[in-house]
Amino acid sequence: RLSTRARAAIFLRANGICHLCGGKITPGEAWDVSHEIPLALGGADDEHNMRPAHRKCHRAWTAENDQPAIAKAKRREAKHIGARVPKGIIKSRGFAKAEPQRRATRPLRKWFGFSRPTTTDAMEG
pTM, whole model, 2 decimals? Predict the structure, then answer.
């Protein structure tokens, strides 16, 4: 938390101009001290990295630009150190398809060759 003296110094150094929209911050208007380079992205936590910004501008900028950039930097770092968990199973070709098994779907009939012996053939020959 910044002291009143530090906030006033930051405000006067920027001549009371919002560093995000370039508009004048009027007396009584809500304003925040914004880090030009966010702390999560490696910005310094000193007065050289702090600028005044309208509260509405600051909130919109943080939601639209800073948070996605910070999330991306965290994802990149997690991937770099190998801490990221894969999203799903690894897809592969799988195993080769096996030959279909030869099974009878109905009872087999015995095969007796080209002709079936009859009692008359056995007597004649």
Answer: 0.62
